[in-house]
Automatic annotation (TrEMBL):
<feature type="domain" description="Fungal lipase-type">
    <location>
        <begin position="75"/>
        <end position="208"/>
    </location>
</feature>
<dbReference type="Pfam" id="PF01764">
    <property type="entry name" value="Lipase_3"/>
</dbReference>
<dbReference type="InterPro" id="IPR002921">
    <property type="entry name" value="Fungal_lipase-type"/>
</dbReference>
<dbReference type="InterPro" id="IPR051218">
    <property type="entry name" value="Sec_MonoDiacylglyc_Lipase"/>
</dbReference>
<protein>
    <submittedName>
        <fullName>Lipase</fullName>
    </submittedName>
</protein>
<dbReference type="GO" id="GO:0006629">
    <property type="term" value="P:lipid metabolic process"/>
</dbReference>
<dbReference type="InterPro" id="IPR029058">
    <property type="entry name" value="AB_hydrolase_fold"/>
</dbReference>
Length: 273
């Protein structure tokens, strides 16, 4: 894992920020010691780790996140989960919509409950570490992307009124209803960046129209090229078919393979040149 660039104030969109935050999302899958060791190497001496375990039949084992900071930026990263567990989320009762805690629309019930477990501690850590007016960046892969988006919304629409400077998600599932998505788009215009890798199955779930994505999408096509603007419906479908049939010996696995955070990082490195 290379050293991401976190020393500058992160505002708006840049590939360098996306690359660094993708690595931060990847790091969220590690244990507490590895996370604290790595963020220190990254020049972020302050780091707090959070993990809350759930009892069955909740469809995942726990929620895990960390907050790391230096004098320029505070990074909040949420861990994703195994694809098999995420599929359980998208097929059981936890997939129902529930009211957003701050009245901005409806959100995925299970994602909302998972965030409930760590949000107060995360918000407290951000508030205590941000003594120098640093940029706030929130990130996550897969389920972690859903939690990152919801955490950014709670910070902004809740009592703290904190507005994140960058919300970068990778392979994020649909997380909310259209009303919540529109409200988020207005408030986070130029701050929210949702990366999707070609045939990645997770961003295609849960299905529309009940669930909706935020509008801003950065798409990697079947050749790993970054498309900054949305492709047409026909162009997007054609590109997905191209990705799914690129390897005749691995038909049917592209949707899962494209979901890995390592694929996102490799494609960002390609885009950076």
């Amino acid at each position: 894992m290379t050293t991401p660039v976190f020393e500058q104030t992160i505002t708006g969109y840049s590939l360098r920020s996306a690359h660094g935050l993708a690595q931060a999302s990847q790091l969220a899958y590690q244990d507490e010691d590895q996370i604290k060791t790595t963020t220190a190497v990254w020049g972020m001496p302050e780091c707090r780790f959070f993990q809350v375990e759930f009892e069955q039949p909740f469809p995942i084992d726990d929620t895990q996140a960390y907050v790391a900071a230096n004098d320029k930026v505070v990074v909040v990263a949420f861990r994703g989960t195994e694809l098999a567990q995420l599929r359980d989320w998208l097929s059981d009762a936890n997939g129902l919509l529930a009211p957003d805690p701050n009245g901005q629309g409806m959100v995925h019930m299970g994602f909302n409950q998972a965030l409930d477990a760590v949000y107060p501690q995360v918000l407290n850590a951000v508030s205590e570490m941000r003594g120098n007016g640093q940029s706030i960046c929130i990130t996550g892969h897969s389920l972690g992307g859903a939690l990152a988006m919801l955490a950014a919304a709670r910070m902004r629409f809740g009592d703290s009124r904190l507005l994140a400077d960058g919300v970068y998600t990778f392979g994020q599932p649909r997380t909310c209803d259209p009303l919540m998505a529109r409200t988020f788009d207005r408030e986070f215009k130029g701050r929210m960046f949702r990366f999707v890798n070609n045939s990645d199955i997770v961003p295609q779930l849960p299905p529309e129209p009940l669930y909706h994505h935020v509008d801003e999408e950065k798409y990697f096509d079947a050749d790993g090229r970054l498309r900054e603007k949305k492709m047409s419906l026909l162009g997007g479908l054609t590109d997905k078919v191209k990705g799914q049939t690129a390897d005749p010996m691995a038909l049917g696995t592209d949707q899962i393979r494209d979901h890995g955070i390592a694929r996102y990082i490799a494609n960002l490195e390609k885009a950076m040149g």
